Amino acid sequence: MPDSWSSLKSMVMKCVVFLLLLHAFSLALENGLMRTPPMGWLAWERFRCNIDCKADPHNCISETLFMQMADHLAMDGWRDLGYEYVNIDDCWMAMKRNMMGHLIPDPERFPRGIKALADYVHSRGLKLGIYGDLGTHTCAGYPGTTLNCIEQDALTFAQWGVDMLKLDGCYSSSDEQAQGYPRMSKALNATGHPIAYSCSWPAYRGGLPPAVNYTLLANTCNVWRNFGDIQDSWESVLSIVEWFSKNQDILQPAAGPGHWNDPDMLIIGNFGLSLEESKSQMALWTIMAAPLFMSTDLRVISASAKEILQNKLMITINQDPLGIQGRRILQSEDRHAISLHNFPCTAQFYRECCL
Hints:
The chain is of the alpha/beta class. It is built from 15 helices and ten strands. It has helices at about 1-25, 45, 65-75, 80, 115-125, 150-160, 175-190, 200-205, 215-220, 235-245, 250, 275-285, 305-310, 310-320, 345-355; strands at about 40, 85, 125-135, 165-170, 195-200, 225, 260, 290-295, 325-330, 335-340. It has an eight-stranded parallel beta sheet with strand order 7-6-5-4-3-2-1-8. It has a two-stranded antiparallel sheet with strand order 9-10. α3 packs parallel to α5, α6 crosses α7 (about 175-190) and α12 (about 275-285) runs parallel beside α13. The longest helix is centred in the first third of the chain and has 25 residues, at about 1-25. The chain starts with a helix and ends with a helix. Removes terminal alpha-N-acetylgalactosamine residues from glycolipids and glycopeptides. Required for the breakdown of glycolipids.
């Protein structure tokens, strides 16, 4: 009898532990995606909303541009280093939904459609990201995703084979955002097609508690924008770094495998940063465990910018599976000291990963 009672107690305890673990996992966004900070290429900072394909066919937002960037990611060593996403931003849509109420791409600039573009990107061993906006319109004035369209648009993206959604927040209220961002998370998961989810939600609410609930964000989004858009200047980079450092006690605990703070794109290879400033942005984004999304023209990128963005040491640190965001521990005039807790600083490691 005592042995039977002991076995029963052991079984009960195992069941309790299992249920507790099940409950804990059910509270998190466990779609299995972005266990390390995502890496790839994003159109916005370099190409903005250039839709004049007659005057500027080489640089306008079109399927040709994204196919060419996919080619360069695959051919020029980017993909093999982890840069796997080709991300469309605003201005890809037609100005109106179709007769069935579905989002559609601009027929002149994307004549073969997004599904064909996704297939092309996938054939290069890459993933396709797309842009939407939780509101009546996108930031550039294209059709938005209102609350009654969330499930429909999620299914559309899944049917196209899209691998990532960036959901902006122009033209929506705080109440609509509070409802819409979690609903889109559930809708994407319900499609059965794995779609990583980038939310601009906290950036529209000031980026800090109590307006922003980072526990809820980690249970909703894989990546989130906390702060304003980066511009092509060193001053913009510094303003982002300063905000993140000032608020690191709030931001650092929120980040980790599957859910990341996003200080915005890497602008290395454009026009606003010097060589040393470019190296600094790469190092700072690396230490912050930030997504590494380049926004530059890979067709004409300089050798020096390419060397910075393809630095194996930086990428290895950024992609550490522990996903611990670094902290600023000292600032004195123009000097900063950064603490990094998850990197094996050994000569052997340096030789193996970096030489």
